[in-house]
Amino acid sequence: MDDFLLHALLGGLGVALAAGPLGVFIVWRRMAYFGDTLAHSGLLGVVFGVILRMDPQLGVILTCLLVALALVLLQRQRGLATDTLLGILAHATLSLGLVALAFLETVRVDLVGYLFGDILAISITDLYRIWGGGLLALSVLALLWRPLLAITVHEELAQVEGVAVFPIRLAFMLLIAIVIATAMKVVGILLITSLLIIPAAAARRFAHSPEGMAALASLFGSTAVGLGLWASLRWDTPAGPSVVVAATALFTLGFAVPGRSRH
Amino acid sequence: MTAEPLLTVEKVNLAIRGNPILRDVSLQVTAGEILALIGPNGAGKSTLARVVLGLIRADSGRVWRKPGVRVGYMPQRLAVDDTLPLSVRRFVTLGTPASRERVREALAEVGAAHVLDAPVQVISGGELQRILLARALLREPELLVLDEPIQGVDVNGQYELYDLIGNLRQRRGCGILIVSHELHLVMAATDHVVCLNRHVCCSGHPEQVARDPAYRELFGLDGVRRLAVYHHHHNHHHDLHGAVVESAEDDAHG
Question: Model's pTM, two decimal places?
């Protein structure tokens, strides 16, 4: 297998593995649009990274956290519904990123690569980052699993039972930011959320427990990466979107298979 | 009461966005006592419960809980997202890790052992209230806070639940704070009633008659009226029946 293909496959698998367990929480907590908003702000993060001469991925993580914080503050105003606020933040940050990018004439930034991913250009360094970030996110999530599940089911009940709600929520947002920063290279900021929620949604019909659903989501995500890359080679289609199409195909196929009935 | 106090609320005031919700509210729950907090919708009962639980902070006044007291809480609503595959057993142990056997015992204590492995989304309203109670009991609580525990439960189930709660107090000796907008069913097992309409309208011991089985046949509007007249020192005219109280709320008293 060619190096670039092996790198693409390993990188994609690293992202898919981490995206599964995080994605199920995004689905359970109905945060799909929130994840999308953070991802949209990723480009602005890249620009900040370039301007401040720090690592673009660090820029993405910091920007995601700032956007999450802005959302929390805006929600306190109570004037506008959350989905409206998210819509404003998502498109404002994306547009700001694009505009800011235009000012950086001297710096070459691969815009299409950031928007839609450039999985076939993943380097060894990228691989270390993807797997390092992914394993870090999974380890932290494993530690937070129980309290995070408790506040997902009922926040106040969990709080009475002694869960420190705010730090847990903050940590969860940080994990989303880390996964977005690492997944950007693979599917691009416009498609990252799909890798989080489509495998998780596909896993629902077959899962009996929260942990089972998380594992299945990782499995489906990994399968989608393999299928998408294969299809991309076979028909010369863009790799990132092909992975998302493959995930959607798996999700759709799931309805044809008799799953566990829930009711 | 000579029993040990578990919770004391003194002259608590709270306004939410400029809107006064609680005014000079005081109450006390001691070990082995059932206190019913009743009042119409919008009277601030759930807010007071959340103050008691430490979920929100009062603007002024004092909320004292016995240091280290173990609190079991039964929230008013629980809606677990359909996308979350969660069995009753997992739900009950989310707050307190426990063996399958122990969970079965806790569920048996509230009469819900049969739903042990059922998904939490498919059980009935009554079963839901019972498993919420089981989750609270697993914590071996000294103080139980039950917010509208009979909500969404049919009339027979309501009796059963109140019997169950009354038994719990006897068996476990915990103090219980029950929030309810209905008076008649609360009365039977209650030691002390606090009637709240943003301030404490009246409070006292429910009369013997409330425990009489014959009384139970009388419920409904007449029963509520009769009881309301029966044991409170109203210094203003407030009926305990919701509709009447709502209209009276505008010219509320200090």
Answer: 0.84
